[in-house]
Please model this.
Amino acid sequence: MAFYIASIIAILATIMVITRYNMIHALLYLVVSFLAVAVIFFMLGAPFVAALEVIIYAGAIVVLIIFVIMMLNLKEESVEQERKWFSKNIWIGPGILSLVLLGELAYILITSERVLLNNSVVDSKAVGMSLYGPYIIGVELCGLLLMAGIVGAYHLGRQRRKVVHRFLEKAEE
Amino acid sequence: MMLASLIAILMVGGIAAGFLARVNQTACRWLSLITVTIAFGIILFIWIDEGLSMTLTDSWLRDLYIPWIPSFGIAFHLAMDGLSLLMLALTFFLGILAVLVSWKEIQYRVGFFHFNLLWVLAGITGVFLTMDLFLFYFFWEVMLIPMYFLIGIWGHENKQYAAYKFFIFTQASGLLMLLAILALYFIHGEQTGIYSFDYFALLNTTLTPDTARWLMCGFLIAFVVKLPVVPLHTWLPDAHTEAPTAGSVLLAGLLLKTGAYGLIRFVLPIFPEAAASIAPIAMLLGVVGIIYGAVQAYSQTDFKRLVAYTSVSHMGFIMLGVFAFNELAMQGVVMQMITHGISTGALFIIAGVLYERIHTRDILRMGGMWKKVPFMGTVAMVFVMASLGLPGLGNFIAEFMTLIGAWQANKLLTIIATAGLVFATAYSLRIMQKVFLGKNIEGHGITDLSLREKFILVPLCIAIIWLGLFPQQVINTAKPTVANGSHAKNHAAIHNRTRTDNVQYTSAFDTERRKP
Amino acid sequence: MNVLPVEMGLLLAGVLFTLGLISVLIRRNIIFMLISVEIMLNAAGLAFIVAGSRWAQADGQVMFIFILTMAAAEVSVGLALILQIYHHLKTLDSDAADKMSG
Amino acid sequence: MIKLLWLIPTLPFLSALILILVGSRLSWRVAARIGAGSIGLAALLTILVGYEFLSSGKDAYLHVAWNWFQAGDLSTTFAFYLDSLSMVFIFVITFVGFLIHIYSIEFMQEDEGFSRFFAYLNLFVCSMLILVLADNLVLLYLGWEGVGLCSYLLIGFWYSEEKNGYAARKAFIITRVGDTAMAIGLFMLFTVFHTLNIQDILTQAPLVWTTGASMAVLIAFLLLGGAVGKSAQLPLQTWLPDAMAGPSPVSALIHAATMVTAGVYLITRMHIVYELAPLAQLWVGIIGAVTLLIAGFSALTQFDLKRVLAYSTISQIGYMFLAMGVGAWSAAVFHFMIHAFFKALLFLAAGAVIMALHHEHDMFRMGGLKNKLPTIYWTFLIGAASLAALPFITAGFYSKDQILWLAWAGEKGNLWFFLAALTGAVVTAVYTFRMVFITFFGEAKTKISHVPGMRITIPLVILAALSLLGGFIELPHTLGHLTLFSDYLSPLLPSVTLKEGIESTEWAIQLVTAALALGGVYFAYILYVKQPKLSDEIKSSTFELHQFWFRGWDFDALYNLVFVRPFVYLSRINKNDVIDQFYTGLVQITEYFNTAFVKTQSGILRWYVMGIVVGAILIMTISLFVQP
Model:
């Protein structure tokens, strides 16, 4: 029962995310959605991942995005703009496509054999054993990826200092 | 080692010439000239030293085997027989002339020009020598790219278009060949367990008729585009017309010959049955080429384009001869490769010499030049006559042997091909009439050949007459390759003699050995 | 704890994914698109977890961790890119960045 | 001495080489000495070699210079083969050639291309000698094409005139058509005999083929194709009248005396093949008979002096072909020799007239030259008499009479051949003396600008003497029965078997021939001297026919319509190469797709995502509903 409640919360929260005009509101709903999913993880016997979901998704990533929004210093007009972009017609095409996709997915799931979930808990130790055992190469690759992410983010995020003569700069204005 | 040094000399010489041009352009030209002359000297040395004493059973002169990427069975394997020898002699002979004709014509980016020129020659040398199919493909591309630059940078009005066209045609067909090479490689590997690109190993591959036909088509298309055979010829008139004189000489004299060489060296020995099965079609295409090229040549008004179409016509004889499958025709083909290189090269040089003087290639605007330039006229007459197959000049020997050989294979086609000689007469005489005879309409005042130009054209004249009167030496040199069915197998003798470093290698695809 | 059928879990993942997808398609604001991508990644992770739970194996969770890592890297690089785009174009409109059009 | 045979073709060759390379720097005197001297030496050598050859009593002499090329079964040598047949030919070539060279020194003196002229002429003599001395057919082919080249060069000698170049190319291309047939004949010969050595073929042919073997007939026809082209016989005769664009000595040497008879040489040389192929031999005769009539009638209508002679040459070679057609080999060769004398004489004399009248070719603007140029007049008259075969005193009578007689009496002869030859004889007499009367009689219409000197008159006189006396080495049964010439050739060429009991009619035939020739002369006399108006009336009453004959029976127009125009048209419309359109079409299609697909590259991110989604849906749908 708890699973269904959490599911409904997750879905509702996500719907709210994708319909908001204000980014901050959307992000708050996103946190709710992530938390609901974390509950589901917990129920599925994955407590370690549930914790990670809360810490990294709901914590770090969302916060990062908020920081960026703050850096961009978006004002009310951005909300207005979002509203303008958001016409009713725009929903039709993507909606149909996505629903088709979802329908096909549901069809596959429904027609497949009914299988019950295993109710055992896989603890963090097992995950660790697995990560540093057969998946060690994946971990290393993830390390590389994060490294590349850091370097890339630093490189891209750096504000290049323009070396332009002041008269020229004036002329540009 | 001498074989590798041939390629190395040209490549190093090319780089050196490229850099030298920054200091001194004349020095760069001299360096290129010396480089090619040295290569020519080496070939002549080998010819005199060993080529003359070749016998039917011991027909391979040199062999060089250095493993390159042993895990894929790729080796730097060069070997030389009579055919390669002849082709190389032609290559360097025309190479020297190509450097000489560019002496005044090329004034823009001299260093890069000579770099490209020498690298094209190096590529062609590699193509004529290599006995490893991977290496062959490598050199096939090496000769392509510098040629692209030669046309694209130093060409005439429409050079970009011509260069693209040339590149796309050759490249696309070359890729088909690469596919066929790889397929052959894997089939051979599966059959014998030895994965090798070596020509002599792949010769022994047994193929089902269907596979053989497909694989052969891969090779064949690459070669007939290069040759070219109608209807795959349309890159040629553009490329020949737009290229600088040296480029035209190399294109007509050598690049086309790599196609013919490929047919003789690869298509026939590796796929004998498949080649025999398409022989009538191939011969038909050859004949179509002869007639079509001749008809096209007749109406052209651009001197170089006209000569380009005569090439199409003459290359038809090669197609006809190669697929006639007999010694006479094959000898004719070898002869045709050499004499066409000389005669067409010479005609392009004459076109270039005229262009330098009157800045047009339109033969309708020429005429009556003989009065002003009798020497050039006489030389042109010799080569025009060569191109219409006058006995006493080399082309006649080639065409006569080809036709008489082809007659044994297919009578009707030979008759049509022979009738092509009448068309050849028509277009050849048209050159003479429009350029040198008739009235000097535009009143061009031009000077006769300079000493340098005489130095280029007179050897060509002597060569074509010599080949017409004393062709036996060439025929003897080519004889083991074309006359002896087991020629390629003879290679084992010299191969074992020289191959000391018999490396045992593990193939990347050798599944047996990779099992733990 | 109740025993759940697998397809319900997967269906949830599918619904979440579809919602994310719709959002990507309809939004022009790049930040919103990034958020939507996060939703979709999360949904994918959920599917892995469900599968891992079905077999009581750790592999599903391992995969989730990989996805998480990737998402983190993606967000950091993506946000840096957004900053640059905003800096250059003075807008968050993804349609404005169409210099690559053929 | 006979060992120096190789020098005979080599001397002209060396001379040609010298003149080509350094000729422009030599004074005309030196160039003339080299040019004519080399031929003179060759002629002298020919006499010496001939003397030794005849006195040795051998059948043949072979000199191998070097092995030319050898590949597979094909083996050819650069070798000269001398036997009685080639002896006759090299004698005519060098001797007549020498006289013409001497003549040319004066004729071409003023021309700026003097040394070039001699270079070409020498090269021609060399090629012609190689042709007749060749030991194998490939070498013969070399000479064959070589003379074709020289003919081209010399017809177009005055190259700045567009029409000379046209005539030259026409000559080369039309003969090349025949050569193509001949080349195919060579291929077939090689396939049968595995050799192209002439003597080997001739000895093996009777062993391999029975009479009438289809292969033999085919080969004989193909070789005939080559002969027809070179000798300007039907249907490839159209080039010769135009070839008169060349200088007169060229017409004399190449287009009358030597080159055009190469076909006669070839067929005579290969006579064993023709004996084995009766059908082909019959056709040789038919071609000869038809050609001699057609060309004869055309000659009647020409007004250009040299064109009359050109048509006359075609007609006379027709006689030779007719002779070969009935198997009268030695009669053909005999007529060749005599024809070489009198036709060279006529051309040279005509050249002298034309030169004297400031390059005037039109006969009707000449006239009255009888007294002004007496030497020319008398020599021309002798030549004309010989051509018209005036009885008993001219060589032409004896050679032509032999052909007529054998066409009637020979086993392979028939009434039609005889009638054709007889008609031809009348026509010949008429057009010949029409020429004489118009040119030399009547009143003078053009002033003489150049009186011929010694170098022109001496060769004329010598040739005139030969045209008269040359015939007396071979006399018919009824008149002394002397057979020096045919005896000389008899080891090589079989004589004609006569029909049963026909010998008694020989005198009657001769009488008819003689009477008809004289009648023809008288007819011409009436028409062109006595009553010139009559000829005009005839001309205007049969204007259409006259024009038709004048245009050479419209063969040119026919060939233009059937071969030349379609070829040129085809070539012109396809100048830009229709096949290339395919590839440019390919490029255009690619470009079209490019512009179409480039729209999907909108730069709008959401479109790309949409693309991905649609792709995902497609893949899923396919995997769902299309079960493998």
